[in-house]
Write a structure and sequence with these properties.
Strand 7, helix 8 and strand 8 form a beta-alpha-beta unit. Strands 6-5-2-7-8-9 form a six-stranded parallel sheet. Helices cover about 40% and strands about 20% of the residues. The protein is globular, with a radius of gyration of 17 Å. By secondary structure, the protein is α/β, with parallel strands linked by helices.
Length: about 220
């Protein structure tokens, strides 16, 4: 990962936040669940892990098992979501996430996650993080990231033009979705640096939010 070399200032009217890898570190459970799935299907677990971050489970399965009927992927994904929701071992907040979310109170922002409502609610609670009032989850969209639908819906719910939004993401699929939506992207963590976001940071301790009187959000990225 190449972190932003010098302080950068981005301005926005709204922020759209991914969850896993961005606000919540759920890598431990994601690894456990998907490596078991890879073993059941005779797939290389390391190769599977390169695909699954950022996407809805059934979308990852469609990439990894292209000849399998989507009905099977959807059923398999439902079981996997239940397993993930029951497993919070090792789920913690990304450094700086509690303070970052607190700094957004009263400012336009939304959660845009490939998790469904039960999983996103459970993981945010396990990490001790407050849920944004506006949430776009798996149930909200017809297409998974890297499709931009989720981010475009988030912008629409907040009443902000896509070009005035900044996305926070960690995965290749999520960064591609934000860019396809016409938004600038702040990449969080080592995965993000591989996918050319506008700027990259180690974690949320490197982002400071400033409220401007005209309603603009000024992001100081170090």
């Amino acid at each position: 990962m190449t972190a932003t070399a010098a302080p950068t200032v981005l301005t926005a009217r709204a922020l759209l936040l991914d969850m896993d890898g961005t606000l919540v570190n759920s890598d431990a459970v994601v690894e456990r669940i998907w490596r078991r799935w890879a073993e059941r299907h005779g797939l290389d677990a390391d190769e599977v892990m390169k695909v699954v971050h950022g996407r809805q489970g059934h979308a990852s399965m469609a990439v990894l098992l292209p000849d399998r009927p989507m009905e099977q992927n959807l059923a398999d994904n439902a079981r996997m979501l239940a397993d993930e929701t029951a497993d919070m071992d090792g789920v913690v907040a990304i450094p700086g996430a509690p303070e970052f979310l607190a700094s957004l109170r009263g400012l336009p922002h939304a959660l845009v996650t490939s998790a469904d409502v039960p999983l996103s609610t459970a993981r945010m609670a396990a990490a001790g993080l407050e849920l944004p009032e506006v949430r776009i989850t798996a149930e909200s969209v017809g297409a998974s990231k890297p499709d931009p639908e989720g981010f475009l819906k988030g912008a629409a719910e907040l009443g902000v033009a896509p070009a005035d939004c900044v996305v926070f993401e960690d995965s290749g699929a999520g960064i591609a979705a934000g860019q396809a939506a016409g938004m600038r992207v702040v990449g969080i963590g080592p995965r993000a640096g591989l996918h050319d976001p506008d700027v990259t940071v180690r974690d949320l301790t490197q982002v400071r939010v400033e409220r401007v009187e005209d309603g603009t959000i000024r992001l100081h990225v170090q």
